[in-house]
Amino acid sequence: MTAIEGTLARPYDTGAAAPRAERAPAVAATPRPRRIWRTGLGSAAAWAGLGVLTLAWPNREVGFSDWNFTTEFGVLALGIAAAVLAWALAGPRTGRIAQALHRAGQWLVAAPLLLALWELLTAKLGALPPPFFAPPQSLIDVAYEDWARLGLSTAHSVRLLAHGFVLGALVGFATGVWIGWSRIAGYWVHPLLRFLGPVPASALLPLAFFFAPSSYAAAVFLIGLATFFPVAVLSWSGVASVHKSYYDVARTLGASEWFLVWRVAVPAALPQVFVGLFMGLGASFSVLVTAEMMGVKAGLGWYLQWAQGWAAYANMYAALLVMAVLCSGLITLLFTVRDRVLSWQKGTVKW
Hints:
This protein is an all-alpha fold. The protein is built from 14 helices and no strands.
């Protein structure tokens, strides 16, 4: 074999071996036992310190009552410390649990330290005046005493958000694809979208509640409007930025106009469509709270206003925590959907 033949043979040899390497499952590196010990012991010590601080240091008298569930909160912190210590003793034998806890090791130390500072400034020292600032155990009190009202408010908010977000996303996606594909729509609709779209949806709150048949319909309209604009703009941008050579190749193979739109333009624009969905979700969540405070007599926004009216600030903090968890969970769900839908574009799209 000559030198040229050997040079030409090497790429084929490498290419033949590449599929076998790609088919090999990627094994995540298991953290070393010493690292697990260091992370686990530090986390267990932090949680144990929080438990001892809560149980051993008596609460400061707040004038109207003592803080309930202080003992339960301290016992919970000690239980978390025992669980983390058991994980550290087990080491790498716990598999994925060890990897997950090792990645969250710094947060497992930071969280009890922040909770201990919160406990000190409120229940122990009274540096933050009650009842405006409640200690962490007050959240347990709210979950025990008022779980029914808080859960029902969360369900109302989820239903209202789902109706408004889905409606706005569908109409915004269809409008964006229409503007990006049709010259007539681009000429007439696009200027209106750029002129009226940046107006905050909450600014139209009085008009929406006046013209809508019910306060719920007005809230759905406002949430849909907040979702509509970013989805429409980014869908239009995605369709308009598709390279013309893709259309030329599809037309050469006999593709129809509907095929060009739904099988060429829309799949290529999906990454930007999902960016618009993320932006619309954040905007719709802010409008949701405003609409529930102003007109809809249910939901987390209404619960916040009710808690503030009764000076139940612990309930208000619990509602804010539920809002944060709900919004974070919806964003995580949308990320999961995006990863499934765009799995075929992972090699070309920045994830």
